[in-house]
C-alpha cells in the first residue's frame, strides 16, 4: 500500500523542491522530476518523492482526514508516522 501526504511546493532547484506540509513542517530535497510541478502546486509526497500533482481542495481535504484519523495519537507518534510517509525527519 502506498501512503502519501500533500504539501505545497514553495521552491524548486533542478529536480528537487522544498515542500511545505503545514504546521511549520517543511522538507527540502523532495524529488519533483516524476511530476510536472511548479511553485505553488500541491503534490502528494511518499518517501521523499512527489508522485502526483493534486488540486488545493483535494490537498486540504486529505490533511483534514489525516488530522481526524490521528487526533487521539500522542504528538510524537504523529510525527513518527508523518516522517515515515513523506521521508526524512527532524
TrEMBL record:
<dbReference type="GO" id="GO:1902670">
    <property type="term" value="F:carbon dioxide binding"/>
</dbReference>
<comment type="similarity">
    <text>Belongs to the HupF/HypC family.</text>
</comment>
<dbReference type="GO" id="GO:0051604">
    <property type="term" value="P:protein maturation"/>
</dbReference>
<protein>
    <submittedName>
        <fullName>Hydrogenase assembly chaperone HypC/HupF</fullName>
    </submittedName>
</protein>
<dbReference type="GO" id="GO:0005506">
    <property type="term" value="F:iron ion binding"/>
</dbReference>
<dbReference type="Pfam" id="PF01455">
    <property type="entry name" value="HupF_HypC"/>
</dbReference>
<dbReference type="InterPro" id="IPR001109">
    <property type="entry name" value="Hydrogenase_HupF/HypC"/>
</dbReference>
